[in-house]
Design a protein that fits this description.
Blueprint (H helix, E strand, L loop, with lengths): L3 H5 L16 E2 L8 H10 L4 E2 L13 E3 L2 E3 L4
Parallel strand pairs: 1-2, 2-4
Antiparallel strand pairs: 3-4
Length: about 80
């Protein structure tokens, strides 16, 4: 997040409205082969959100909290 312009070859336009300290979540396909291992790991690193799970229905909708972590399912 600190070198996004250089990494993407972007030279113009507005800067990001937030810094890396504001991003406290993740998207991972799997952790040790088990989603049960994911949420304890997220909590251990003070993460607030995740978007690793596939959506149970089509479209975009409000996230739900699972074990204290906001889950934004992937449509």
């Amino acid at each position: 997040m600190t070198q996004w312009r250089q990494l993407n070859g972007i030279r113009t336009g507005p800067d990001l409205a937030f810094g890396p300290e504001a991003v406290n979540g993740t998207r991972t396909q799997c952790l040790e082969g088990s989603m049960k291992a994911l949420f304890p790991a997220l909590r251990a690193f003070d993460m607030m959100w995740d978007s690793s799970m596939p959506a149970s229905r089509p479209g975009v909708y409000w996230p739900t909290k699972i074990n204290g972590i906001w889950e934004f399912p992937v449509p």
